[in-house]
Amino acid sequence: MMFRAVLAGLLALTSLPALAHGEEAAPDPQRAIVSAYVDAYNQRNLDAMLALMHDDVQWLSVEADTVTVFADGKADLATQMRDYMTSPMVTTSEVSAGFVDGNFVAVTEIARWTNGEGEEREQSALAVYEIEDGLVRRVWYYPATR
Fold first, then answer.
1. Average pLDDT estimate for 132-145
2. Total Cβ atoms within 10 A of residue 92
3. What percent of the chain has pLDDT over 70?
């Protein structure tokens, strides 16, 4: 369950540093979509998050040679995010620079939260967002590295 909560937090939690600090917005529209999604997540604004999701969005977790579908479709994602957002655990995140290649935005996401014992926790993972028609179509999350 903790993995799902952290994964849910990682799903949405990112702000490209240039955008997070009020600097000029990145010129890539794909990067701006990822940033807007992460901002909505950090604000726990489910409606804004869903407005950036393709109807057929998929959230995928990659572990070695296995890919697990975390959410399949906007309705499924909405249910999972609604459950997560009503939990007492609040996760925030930021995205490191990363790069854009066509419709793909690859970033390192750093998630931060406070565990049940009041300890500050942090982990990072590679995430790849696929943007289709100006909406997030797929997200692949790779194993946390710290």
1. 96
2. 18
3. 81
